[in-house]
Design goal:
The chain is mostly beta strands. The protein is built from no helices and 7 strands.
Length: 111
Amino acid sequence: MNTVNSVPASLDWNVYRGDTARINIILRDESNKLMDLTDYEFAGEVKASPKDSDSLQEITITKSESAITLLIPDTSNLPRKAYFDIQSTQSNGDVQTILKGNINVEDDVTR
């Protein structure tokens, strides 16, 4: 039996409380070629639970030719475990969640 999988990639993002959290992601297509992100917009949210309607924070997303940078400016108020996902919207209106995962927050020492 063949399986078609349209579930987004999953990532555990470990952050240190109070720090700025940033990751860079290079996007490639099915042929492993760098994607042209000109016609894409990106959005991301952090929630205490995936089922929550309210987000704890928006993820700031900047894009370059074939990469995106995810930024959480301040992790101080996040719970020990939170959830996030990143959606892309193409200029033709197609929406696809490209990444989902957990954010694990470790308490800081220096406050």
